[in-house]
Design goal:
By secondary structure, the chain is mainly beta. Helices cover 5% and strands 39% of the residues. The radius of gyration is 19 Å and the shape is globular.
């Protein structure tokens, strides 16, 4: 089989909002390649070997910036100022209710209508295996209070891991912040084939329940006896065939798991593992964050242009999965959950590491 072609940076060169956009290449000495655009900090390509050493592209993405603009808005993106959902697009902070932009029914999703997934980051590439992106969330942007500059460093390690580290500081007002990465993975390197045979392990005894509308309620439930028990490895398909109200409400898996172990930015903790038996590719997720959203691509449908992937391959229903470590969804509206506030002078730091191997 022919080697997988690397994306062409020339097809990602564009001016958006008056700022330059391009595609950056990160690589290590073992042949791993990652392509990232500074528009939304989006990961567009990840080339890693299978058990036979054959390289494959395990990240769903697009082959031009125009396709990115017409495509799934969250795909591959660095998500902020607040990842996941905020109910009714509002939350109280210091006795004042912040009113956010609405972009998911009556709710706010992934930072609003112009969250970081729609923004051009200032970029600097110091060496072949790392990329530094910077963006400043302005006071009042999307309804959030406070100025919040963030720096994100992407790094490809010699151990075939993609590492993402962020640091954000509240400047003038108390605010809330919650970041994650939204790469869609297909370890079989074929987004035209659903990820049903991927075997998943998630180190979580509890998850946040969804209401009838598929919105996280803040209620922590045990995974015992449910379709969401991934403490022992099982395939995505094995979970989906169980008659479970939570699976029905999400039309698959789109749930936030409460991880058993929380790491720090300096000392990561194991969160999850995905294994593709046919290719032997394995992905381990390690992070600093207390929770992780597991999503089975329930919004993919092979529709053009939004699902028009690389090489003319359209993303099929459940053609990719996401593992998104972060703070908890809608937590500003749930005082019983860990706080996501950042006070002036404080930093919010975090890290996600996607570790690839084959067996």
């Amino acid at each position: 089989m022919a080697a997988t072609l690397e994306l062409d940076a020339d097809r990602f060169t564009k001016t958006i909002d008056g700022l330059p956009v391009t595609l950056y290449t990160l690589r290590n000495g073992k042949g791993m390649v990652v392509k990232i655009t500074n528009y939304g900090g989006k990961v567009e390509q990840i080339l890693v070997p299978d058990r036979n050493g054959e390289m494959g592209d395990v990240a769903l993405g697009y082959d031009s910036i125009d396709a990115v603009l017409a495509g799934q808005p969250s795909m591959g993106a660095f998500i902020g100022r607040f990842a996941n959902r905020i109910r009714n697009a509002r939350f109280p902070l210091n006795g004042v209710v912040a009113t956010l932009s609405v972009n998911a029914g009556q709710h706010s999703l992934h930072g609003g209508t112009r969250g970081s997934r729609f923004r051009v980051f200032a970029a600097r590439q110091p060496d072949d295996n790392s990329l530094e992106l910077m963006y400043v969330f302005q006071d009042g942007e999307e309804g959030y209070p406070g100025t919040l500059p963030v720096r994100v460093i992407y790094r490809v390690t010699d151990e075939n891991a993609l590492r993402m580290e962020w640091s954000a500081a509240a400047i003038d007002k108390e605010t809330v912040a919650n970041f994650t990465n939204h790469t869609f993975f297909n370890l079989g390197a074929d987004p035209t084939t659903p990820v049903l045979d991927t075997e998943v392990t998630i180190d979580a005894d509890r998850f946040i329940a969804l209401d009838e509308g598929g919105f996280p309620t803040g209620e922590l439930r045990t995974v015992d006896g449910s379709a969401l028990d991934f403490r022992a490895a099982r395939s995505v398909a094995a979970g989906l065939v169980l008659e479970d109200e939570q699976v029905r409400r999400a039309n698959g898996f789109d749930h936030h798991f409460v991880l058993n172990r929380q790491g720090t930015a300096e000392r990561l903790a194991f969160a999850a593992r995905a294994y593709h038996p046919a290719s032997g590719r394995q992905l381990e997720v390690w992070s600093s964050e207390p929770g992780m959203q597991f999503f089975t691509g329930n919004n993919l449908a092979g529709k053009l242009p939004v699902d028009a992937g690389k090489d003319g391959k359209a993303f099929v229903f459940r053609g990719g999965f996401c593992m998104e470590p972060s703070r908890f969804p809608d937590s500003p509206n749930h005082p019983e959950l860990p706080s996501t506030s950042v006070k002036p002078g404080e930093f919010y730091t975090g890290c996600i590491e996607y570790r690839f191997s084959a067996r």
